[in-house]
Amino acid sequence: MEKKATGKIIAQNKKAWHEYFVEETYEAGIELFGTEVKSLRAGNVNLKDSYCSIDNGELFVRQMHVSPYEHGNIFNRDPLRPRKLLMHKREILKLFGLVAQKGYTLVPLQLYFKGSNVKVQVGLCRGKKLYDKRDAAAEKQASRDIDRQMKSKQYTD
């Protein structure tokens, strides 16, 4: 169920791709206030240490830092407040079952605009061990070396 972001990407969680194996991705809406949306349009958001949790059948994103809007005065909210994600109940229950039984984690991968709405790409992730991270780095380096060799061969022919 791999879905690509279709609009302007606001922020990406590159650390999540390094720390986890992403099994599936889901698209969710997010409940925001007006000044938070204005701050997102300015790109003032950080997904680095954020995660998702399910409480009472509702999905929340936690530790997502949305900087206060500079012209927002009293209407600014707490930058680290939990924000509700909007998904169908059956999807939330499916994710809850997977997280509870198989030890998966829900991690926000990216934040983007789809039309005038803000969407969050949530990944169903499994943690990487240190040796997995080393293998991934070795594969990436090997791929770069191959590309470099292929490029040099094209110019010498």
SSE order in H/E notation? EHEHEEEEEHEEH
The main pleated sheet reads as: 7 strands, antiparallel
Provide a count of the helices: 4
Quaternary structure type? single chain
Q: How many runs of DSSP E, i.e. beta strands?
A: 9
The end-to-end span amounts to 42 Å
Short overview:
The chain is an alpha+beta fold and 157 residues long.
Verbal overview:
- This protein is of the alpha+beta class.
- 35% of the residues lie in helices and 34% in strands.
- It contains four helices and nine strands, in the order βαβαβββββαββα.
- It has helices spanning 14-19, 34-41, 89-102, 130-156, and strands at residues 9-12, 20-30, 45-46, 51-55, 58-62, 65-66, 83-86, 105-114, 117-127.
- The protein has a seven-stranded antiparallel β-sheet with strand order 1-8-9-2-7-5-4. Strands 3-6 form a two-stranded antiparallel ribbon.
- A hairpin with a 2-residue loop joins β8 and β9 (117-127).
- The protein is globular and about 65 Å long.
- The chain starts with 8 loop residues before the first strand and ends with a helix.
Give the helix/strand layout.
Elements: E1 9-12, H1 14-19, E2 20-30, H2 34-41, E3 45-46, E4 51-55, E5 58-62, E6 65-66, E7 83-86, H3 89-102, E8 105-114, E9 117-127, H4 130-156
Antiparallel strand pairs: 1-8, 2-7, 2-9, 3-6, 4-5, 5-7, 8-9
